[in-house]
Amino acid sequence: MDTDDRLAADLARDLDRSFDALVLAHQDRLYTIALRMLRDPRDAEEAAQDAFVRAYRALATYDTERIRELQVRGWLTTIVLNLCRTRGVRRAARGAPPVSIDDDARPPIEPAAAAAQAPTEVAERHAERERWVARLAELPPVYRAAVVLRHVDGLSYPEAAAALGRPEGTVKAQVHRGIGLLRTMLEADARHELEEMTA
Amino acid sequence: MNQPLDPAGTDATVEAALSDLTARAPASLRPAVLVELGLADAYARFDSPIGPLTVSWNGRGVSSVDAAEDGATFEARHRALTGREAFAMETVPRRLATAITRRLGGDRRVRIDLDLRGHSPFEQDVWRKALEIPRGEVRPYGWVAAEIGRPRAVRAVGTALGHNPVPLIVPCHRVVRTDGTIGQYSLGGPDNKRTILRSEGLDPDGLEAQAAAGIRYTGSDTTRIVCLPTCRHARRVTDTHRVGFRSVRAAAEAGYRPCKICRPDSGAVLAA
């Protein structure tokens, strides 16, 4: 029985007592997915919060059998992705420019490990991450969602396909295409750097 | 210098870089979710007529008003009473703070949702009845008991008021002993009860003195209506027309009918 199966069993038994465990187990994931889809940390936090609230309210209407059978990880992913989509649409309609502040403006995620490194290495890693965040944001949303689920969140192809509600083959193609685009961006950046060095 | 990059190598590079893009949820996320769902509460300090208090709330409403001296004491007590975690906040949200201030100021139109889960229907009946008592007025325990259809449950009404999780908002301080004395108070004792009643424009000492002199009801010889002494209609009666009664029966015998607003006959002292 994996962690999510145990979680589903606990939720079926006592939703109110077990829901905190679900939040603890999945908050980093949902926040990461929302952050990589929306980029703005505040939007991402709101989307993740909203996703948990909706999940709870849905679970409150499900019978115990349905909760026990739930694929928790994929189900939560679908909820947060839908919220990201409506949020993205709303923001586009408002015409607001995409916000460029990222969580990377905050202190590094692993302070202990970072402390052991030289300051320049920390700064370099930070900048490198920031470049990847920017490249990822340039992907069309359909590819971005597939790439984020498969390679940032680490879902398997069947899980990602279920979460996205698309055939596995389609998701594989979208991930492949997304990675291809990212590689092209990386190559372009590398070429640019090289040209600058030899100029 | 245009050496071609190895495509296979860069696919792996891309995937490795992507797997490094995980983020940690902000510390505020979990409390926000649990509080919104009423699975935990938020709390903050709040200034009241009897000094700073702690108020807690969640997505369902205000869950407690507490006189705890510090956060740790409050959190421990909150967990013992509700089984829920409580998260410290900087301040009470502005809308809630305004609503509480207006309610304490006597504005009964402002709605404050309350989270009273886990309390018995009897307790909730008692608290809902206490909510009907206007600012600046008091009612006896027996009155509350009679009004909720449990005239013999006077003692239980006292206990329920003592367990009121949201004192001040549910004004249990406006319920006094049937003998006219001010009685106990859950939020730091009887002195606080007097202070709050005074801040609401009442004279607790005068009220007790009157009751001690045997006057439990006030009538007007012009309207021939008898009220509880703090009823807003009784307080409008001028001294020359004010008549005191020991009991509703004595008033009835003198030709006075009970006020329909304060209903002095609810849980009334019947003896002549």
Describe the structure concisely for a colleague.
With 199 residues, chain A is mainly alpha-helical. Chain A is built from ten helices and no strands. Chain A has two domains: 1-95, Rna Polymerase Sigma Factor, Chain: A; 115-199, Arc Repressor Mutant, subunit A (Orthogonal Bundle), CATH 1.10.10.10.
Features:
heterodimer; A: 199 residues; mainly alpha; Rna Polymerase Sigma Factor, Chain: A; Arc Repressor Mutant, subunit A; 2 domains; elongated; B: 272 residues; alpha/beta; four-stranded mixed beta sheet; 10 strands; 16% strand
The CATH class designation of the largest domain in chain A is Mainly Alpha
Give me the count of strands of chain A: 0
What's the story with the biggest beta sheet of chain A?
Answer: none
Structural class of chain A: mainly alpha
CATH topology of the largest domain in chain A: Rna Polymerase Sigma Factor, Chain: A
Strand order of the largest sheet of chain B: 3-2-1-4
Strand content of chain B: 15-25%
State the helical fraction of chain B. 25-40%
> So how many helices of chain A?
10
What is the secondary structure topology, with strand pairs?
The complex is a heterodimer of chains A (199) and B (272).
Chain A: H1 3-13, H2 15-38, H3 41-59, H4 64-68, H5 72-94, H6 111-116, H7 119-138, H8 141-152, H9 157-164, H10 168-198
Helix pairs in contact in A: 1-2, 2-3, 2-5, 2-8, 3-5, 5-9, 8-9, 8-10, 9-10
Chain B: H1 7-19, H2 29-36, E1 40-48, E2 51-58, E3 61-66, H3 71-82, E4 85-88, H4 94-104, H5 121-130, E5 139-140, H6 141-147, H7 154-162, E6 175-176, H8 190-199, H9 204-212, E7 217-220, E8 225-227, H10 232-236, E9 242-245, H11 248-253, E10 257-258
Parallel strand pairs in B: 1-4, 5-6, 8-10
Antiparallel strand pairs in B: 1-2, 2-3, 7-8, 7-9
Helix pairs in contact in B: 6-7
